[in-house]
Amino acid sequence: IISQSPLVVVDGAHNVSGAQALRDTLDLFPHWKVMAIAGMLGDKDVDGVLSLLGPRCCKMITVTPDSTRALSQSGLAQRAAKYCADVTPCSNLEEAFAMGYNALEEGELLLSFGSLYLASDMRVIARDFLDNKKREK
């Protein structure tokens, strides 16, 4: 949990068992609407992870994690569209976070998942973004 208000969560969930654990947690809070930032490596079970988490997301922003094994944001968006009705590819992690954060509505959760590389980068991006928001107030 990076922020509680609004709720911002970063999770690796880079394989089916991690995605299942995350889905089980999300299912404990069925009233949460989930806006996701997803980025995955191409050698993972992408459809397995997306089939578990995609249907739980009201919107998904896809990105490319910082790895030579990463699936592109557009490639991931094409695959994610099978599981989530509103998918937008984004070429920049900072822009993706800002896009997701600024589109949050009351009762929505911003969730990053799909790669440990992405989780590492998103923790820093989210904290910097939220620190800047606090300073602006």
What can you tell me about this protein's structure?
With 137 residues, the chain is of the alpha/beta class. 44% of the residues lie in helices and 20% in strands. The chain is built from 5 helices and 6 strands. It has helices at residues 16-27, 46-53, 73-80, 93-103, 116-136, and strands at 3-4, 7-10, 33-38, 57-62, 87-89, 108-113. A 6-stranded mixed sheet has the order 1-2-6-3-4-5. The chain is globular. The two termini are 22 Å apart.
Give the SSE map.
Blueprint: E1 3-4, E2 7-10, H1 16-27, E3 33-38, H2 46-53, E4 57-62, H3 73-80, E5 87-89, H4 93-103, E6 108-113, H5 116-136
Parallel strand pairs: 2-6, 3-4, 3-6, 4-5
Antiparallel strand pairs: 1-2
Helix pairs in contact: 1-2, 4-5
Tell me how many strands there are. 6
User: How many individual helices?
Assistant: 5
Q: Tell me, what's the shape?
A: globular
Order of helices and strands: EEHEHEHEHEH
Percentage of β-strand residues: 15-25%
The poorly predicted ranges are none
Rg calculated over all Cα atoms: 14 Å
Q: Report on the biggest sheet.
A: 6 strands, mixed
The percentage helix is: 40-55%
Report, as a whole number of angstroms, the end-to-end distance: 22 Å
Structural class of the secondary elements? alpha/beta
Q: Whole-number average pLDDT?
A: 95
Query: Order of strands side by side in the largest beta sheet?
Result: 1-2-6-3-4-5
What would the keywords be for this entry?
137 residues, alpha/beta, six-stranded mixed sheet, 5 helices
